[in-house]
Structure formats: structure tokens, C-alpha cells
């Protein structure tokens, strides 16, 4: 295992609960919390389902996100932990293009503000991009996520267009002004 990669919980022998299995993208484990008809077992509470959805969105586990949506998680619901955000907020923050696409296909709202920072999923995407750019780890996936959110109707704050980091990145600027995003 690469020393820079964190070990998964399951790789060190700890049992996974519903949330951990969702975050790690372990369908073999998280599906064990559901009956064959898709209903949740008594061992899985509604709070655990929402937390599992949060983790799956945050870590870009698209298959888990879709599985949980199929079992009753509301795509646009403000999740109680940790910031009163939607799953789209977390998927956007992580730059997870596939998960953002899946959520948007299911009708995730793009104009909802979280309860802690008062930000939309687009705000969260830009924050995630800036943070990773400062660490030298930003990827083109953030430009793709921003373009998806803007195309879906997310409001764009005009101040973002004059931001130095946005103006210095032609792909991000194009994504925010709804131009075709140039490939690098």
C-alpha cells in the first residue's frame, strides 16, 4: 500500500457499519443492511441511511448514492450532519463528476444553501477546487462539475468572474460563464 494513501477501515480488520461501507464503496457490506425487497433492515436507522448517503456523496461512490436513492433517500433533502447540506454539496465539493451527474439526473436542486456556510453546491465546488489548487492537487474534474452545475441552472455570483484564481484558469472561467470548457 502506498504510504501516502490512508488505510481503509476494513483493511485493518474493523467491522464496517452502514455509513463506513457507503463511504468506502463496499456494496457487499452496505447491501447487507437491506432486505431482498430493498427495504431497510431494523439494523439500519433513517439517520444512518442519511449519514451513509452523505459519505457516499462526499467520496464519489456513485453506485452507493444511486442504491440509496432507490431506497428512499430524497435527492434534495438537507442532511442533518454535518452542515445541513445536500448530497450534491458534498459531491460538488469533492469534484466527483459521476456522482454530480447522477444526482442532477435525479433532480437534485442546485440553488439550495447549506445551513452552516450558506453556500450552494456551486459554492462548495469552487471551495473544493480552490483548496486543492492551493495544495497543488486540483483536477479538471472541478471544471467539469462547475460546468454541470451552471448548465443545470446554478446561480453564478458575478464576483467569482473577477476572482484572480478563476480568471487565471481558462477552464474554470469558461465553466462559470457557460462556455464550452476547453480540454487541456
Descriptive account of the structure:
By secondary structure, this protein is mainly alpha-helical. The protein has helices spanning 18-24, 27-30, 46-58, 62-70, 87-93, 97-105, 121-134, 141-151, 158-161, 164-167, 170-176. The longest helix has 14 residues, at 121-134.
Give Rg in angstroms.
17 Å
> Can you summarize the main beta sheet?
none
N→C terminal distance: 30 Å
Give the SSE order as H and E letters: HHHHHHHHHHH
Coarse shape:
elongated
Secondary-structure class:
mainly alpha
Low-confidence stretches: 1-10
Estimate what percentage of residues fall within beta strands. Answer: under 5%
Briefly characterize the structure.
With 184 residues, the protein is an all-alpha fold.
List its salient traits.
single chain; 184 residues; elongated
Q: Mind sketching the topology for me?
A:
Layout: H1 18-24, H2 27-30, H3 46-58, H4 62-70, H5 87-93, H6 97-105, H7 121-134, H8 141-151, H9 158-161, H10 164-167, H11 170-176
Helix pairs in contact: 1-3, 3-4, 3-5, 4-6, 5-6, 5-7, 6-8, 7-8, 8-11
